[in-house]
From TrEMBL, chain A:
Residue span(s) of domain Cysteine-rich: 26-107, 169-261
PANTHER family cross-referenced by the UniProt entry: COB--COM HETERODISULFIDE REDUCTASE SUBUNIT B 1
Protein's name in the database: CoB--CoM heterodisulfide reductase subunit B
InterPro entries assigned: Cys_rich_dom, HdrB/HdrD_reductase
The keyword Nucleotide-binding is assigned to this record: no
GO molecular function annotations of the record: oxidoreductase activity
Protein keywords: Oxidoreductase
Pfam families for this protein: CCG
TrEMBL record, chain B:
4Fe-4S ferredoxin-type domain ranges (all copies): 19-49
Protein name (database record): Heterodisulfide reductase subunit C
Pfam families documented for this protein: Fer4_17 (PF13534)
SUPFAM superfamilies with a match to the protein in the record: alpha-helical ferredoxin
Positions of transmembrane segments: none
Length: 314, 209
């Protein structure tokens, strides 16, 4: 047993409580659709292999969480749009699958505020009423796809077509999943379930010092405090991964992916050469399950991905 | 040099936060400092100290908070909230404090860069859709090759409904007020746990680098 497994704090009860759905509403992410469309494709590919059908809606808008947390709109807009967006799967009678930690965290937090504060609930209800939509009743479940993948780890293992033998992979979990400590399946300070997924895919998980450090990009500090704090922070993180011999990093949030992938260019230009491809966990799983590599959209990445994956493509 | 006045302090501040419905009861804070220990921003800028900010709020030192540069540094990673033994949701407190500061005309330079995203999102109901035609073509080509729609498009009904939300939640008016409020220059900043006060005649050399 490896060190990281001895320290595992995964909550077996919460994992047991997760469903194995056959149909889910797929909540689309703006950053995902624009920066890394391959993520959305990969989520569908993995879903298909596990027998999960994803339904989307062209009526679903941005979750509005980013603009809220940048203080660029008032909270009522974010509450109303959460209420409206969640009324769509509610009308379909479906639970929600999300593949962006940002959307996941904001939807959960705002749904909680709508549910627990009568004044906020009124904002949401009034909005839905004015739009002729159902009131949001707050009973539907919101899952991040990464936990649904982990739930069916055995099945995933049996489906592996390209064992990633010898590939040193490291995790970036993303804060807005782990911070939901009332529902997250793993410990916020020492999560290990991504490492278990890498092992199931045949790869070698690597634990690096700044593994739990955030991406620095949420709430727009990448625009306002880039030089002052964000760049030094990402530089520390990526250098610590490089020192641990990491060959590939995965995220579960297109926002984190943007920060960690795109900023490597600047970090390298400033004298700290670093080149660690960063992809979504769903893209990694889809790749190991044998999905055609052109379908995974690695062209969108700034730090080239194919050099480390090439040897697994027959 | 401007000095702090006892009259700047107000216990109404904590009450205002409590009634906002955003942050929970922060008087539960036991000042253990775990939030600061796990904070990635504090690791880089020691003058940023979540424990101290909670303290200032509880003591009612709102003038200092409103004008502080520090409150705009938070990454919102929520590591503090995940580790807090008193279950304080610090990021939501920070969100509220920033609104409070804005209502006093401070911090506009940290919000202005995002107004263009809001203007665009209001038109398209999607955030971050680039404006440059070359970049849009790149995205179209990649998405089409993956069998996805060329761009993430929200239906006309969806966009109309989203715009209506801007009206009925008062966001349009809120944005108008925001844009019309002149920026009040910030003239306080923390230095390693202490406070420096400067007036306009000062060149700013006392500011933390």
């Amino acid at each position: 047993m490896e060190e990281y497994q001895r320290l595992s704090l995964i909550d077996p009860q919460r994992v047991a409580n997760l469903p194995t759905p056959d149909k889910l509403f797929l909540f689309l992410s703006c950053t995902g659709s624009i920066e890394y469309p391959g993520t959305e494709r990969a989520v569908r590919i993995v879903g298909e292999k596990l027998g999960i059908e994803f339904v989307e809606s062209v009526d679903q808008t941005c979750c509005t969480g980013y603009m809220l947390t940048c203080n660029a709109v008032n909270p009522q807009l974010a509450l109303a749009s959460t209420s409206r967006n969640l009324s769509i799967p509610q009308e379909m009678g479906l639970d929600v699958g999300v593949f962006c930690n940002g959307c996941y965290g904001y939807l959960r937090e705002l749904a909680h505020l709508l549910h627990s504060n009568p004044a906020f609930k009124e904002v949401g209800d009034k909005a839905n009423e004015a739009l002729g939509r159902e009131k949001f009743r707050g009973h539907l479940k919101i899952y991040h796809v990464q936990e649904l993948w982990y739930k069916q780890l055995e099945k995933l293992t049996s489906l592996v077509k390209r064992p990633l033998t010898g590939l040193k992979i490291a995790a970036h979990y993303g804060c807005h999943y782990l911070a939901n400590k009332d529902v997250a399946i793993d410990d916020a300070q020492y999560p290990t379930f991504h490492e278990e997924i890498y092992k199931a895919l045949g790869a070698t998980p690597v634990v690096y010092k700044e593994r739990r450090a955030c991406c620095g990009y949420s709430v727009g500090r990448g625009f306002t405090h880039r030089e002052e704090t964000v760049l030094p922070h990402i530089t520390n993180k990526m250098l610590s991964a490089a020192a641990a011999g990491v060959q590939l990093m995965t995220t579960t949030c297109p926002g984190c992916n943007t920060a960690l992938d795109r900023e490597q260019k600047t970090i390298t230009a400033r004298g700290n050469a670093v080149s660690i491809p960063v992809i979504d966990l769903s893209q990694l799983i889809a790749f190991a399950l044998g999905a055609p590599v052109e379908q995974l959209g690695f062209k969108a990445n700034t730090t080239p991905v194919l050099p480390v994956l090439e040897r697994f493509i027959k | 040099m401007k000095r702090e006045q006892a009259s700047d302090w107000s216990l109404e501040f904590e009450k205002a936060i409590a009634t906002s419905g955003l942050a929970d009861d922060i008087s539960r804070c036991i000042s253990c400092g775990k939030c600061t220990g796990v904070c990635p921003v504090a690791a880089i800028s020691p003058s940023y100290n979540p424990r101290q900010i909670i303290r200032e709020v509880l003591l009612g030192n709102y003038e200092r908070i409103v004008q502080s540069e520090e409150i705009w540094r938070c990454f919102w990673c929520a590591n503090c909230a995940a580790t807090c033994p008193s279950e304080i949701k610090y990021p939501l407190l920070m969100l509220y404090i920033r609104y409070f500061s804005m209502s006093h005309g401070a911090g506009k330079k940290h919000v202005d860069p995002f107004i263009r995203f809001v203007t665009k999102a209001r038109q398209e109901a999607v955030t971050f859709q680039p404006g440059k035609p070359a970049r849009l073509d790149e995205i179209r080509a990649l998405r089409s090759s993956l069998g996805l729609s060329p761009l993430r498009i929200v239906s006309d009904d969806g966009i109309r409904e989203y715009q209506k939300l801007f009206e009925i939640t008062g966001t349009d008016e809120w944005l108008k007020n925001y844009q019309e409020t002149p920026e009040v220059p910030i003239n306080l900043s923390y230095l390693e746990g202490r406070i420096l006060v400067q007036d306009d005649s000062n060149s700013g050399s006392e500011r933390e680098a």
